[in-house]
Amino acid sequence: MIKAFFRYALALHLGVLCVLVAYQVVARYISFVPPFLWTEEVARLVFIWMVMIGAGYGFVEQAHFSFTYVHSVLPKRLRRHLTTIVYLIVLAVMGFFLWSSLIFFIKGFARTSLVTGMPMAASYGALLFGAGISVIAILINFYRHIFLPVTPDATVTPIEKEA
After folding, report:
1. Share of the chain above pLDDT 70, in %
2. Sequence-ordered strand ranges (E) for the chain
3. Model confidence at 136, in pLDDT bands (50, 70, 90)?
4. What would the DSSP string read from start to end of 23-54?
């Protein structure tokens, strides 16, 4: 269910982004199509949300880039400790990002965009959402790493198994 939500949200954002950008291109070269200024700003907003939803989904799926060579050459006991340290570092960084994005989001209500007049919190909210999903996913995966028994295929365990 979580995977489906993320996939549909990303597909919807990508579809809207493609339509808006295609309209901008057509309006630029065909004289009878009116160029709307708001399409660029909304396309940028949709792109920001798409990136941050994708970043959060990457943590849900544990699909972000990682160096595996050091992990693979260490003894099994040290691998577990290294993984714990990496989880703590990533959690600290994303926790800081979550806190910073909350402050940024709150300040965004005092600013408005030039063309649409929307509060900038509409785009800054994407940072907060992406950071929030990331922190939740890291905490769930860290809990599983610490408290659930290790199985041979548990080196990369997404939050939700494919059904």
Report:
1. 91
2. none
3. very high
4. HHHHHHH-TTSPPPTHHHHHHHHHHHHHHHHH
CA atoms in the 13 A half-sphere facing the CB of 117: 0
Average pLDDT over residues 30-50: 91
For residues 44-76, b (16+ Cβ closer than 10 Å) or e, as one string?
A: ebbbbbbebbbbbbbbbbeeeeeeeeeeeeeee
One-letter amino acid of 97: F
pLDDT at 86: 92
* Six-digit token string for 151: 């199985």
Domain map of the chain by residue range?
47-147
Q: What whole-number distance in Å separates Cα of residue 12 and Cα of residue 10?
A: 5
pTM, two decimals, is 0.82
Residues 6+ apart with CB under 8 A from 77: none
- Exposure of 16 in the CB half-sphere (CA atoms within 13 A): 18
34 alpha carbon, distance to own chain's centre: 34
Q: How far is Cα 131 from Cα 54, in angstroms, rounded to an integer? A: 11
Mean pLDDT to the nearest integer, 16-45: 92
